[in-house]
Amino acid sequence: MSTRGTRDNKKQNEEHQRILNGMLAVPANKFCAECGGKGPRWASYNLGIFLCIRCSGIHRNLGVHISKVRSVNLDTWTPQQIQSIRGLGNEKAAALWEYHLPADFRRPSDSDQQMEAFIRSKYERGRYKRRESDPPLQQSASQPQTQAQEPARVDKEKERKKKERRSRSKPTSPANTPSSQAGFIADFGSAAATTAAPAAAAQPSLLADFGAPAPAAATPAAAPAAAPASAAPAASSAGLGDVFGAPAQQQQQQQ
Known about the structure:
The chain is mostly helical. It is built from 10 helices and 3 strands.
């Protein structure tokens, strides 16, 4: 019986330790609820907060009617104690006990006496405690995420980066895109126009080398220009008639 009970107690303690370590992994619980020191290893299970060793001593001086302190890894926790702190934590406790604490309030972390006065005013007199008439605090987006939310955010970020790498690794063929086809056609058209332009410009240059009359002879419209040439003999004969006809008429008139 004793052996079985020992095994059960050991298993229960291991489960309690797992729960406490899980709570300490929450960002808000990684710091002392009073002074803000890193790595708290003590807790007030009835207030639901985690404390450093110095602030835990101050809480012990308050009395067990105000704060019940236990070590996270040195003391043995009962199921009732675990149940009392499990639903709380530094963030929820601050929303109750530090509701009216000024935003620019500077915690007296240097002096033990000032720190004890601050802790007593907070829990003994309830100076900053939230009243029933006060509205509840709204969780802001700037507050740290819980342990359950953090892995989901990390997984989404990894998935987004994988998609970006896949999209970058896929080659895009320029020939299959409409813009590349349009650019190819435009380039082909401009190249053809560029090729035709020097050919048209070279033709007058070659003709100019053989003299100015060459273009007129090469055009089909030059054929009608020969008609005035055939009429030239008539004009010339008429001109001869004027030269030789005048003496003939004078001889007839004399007769």
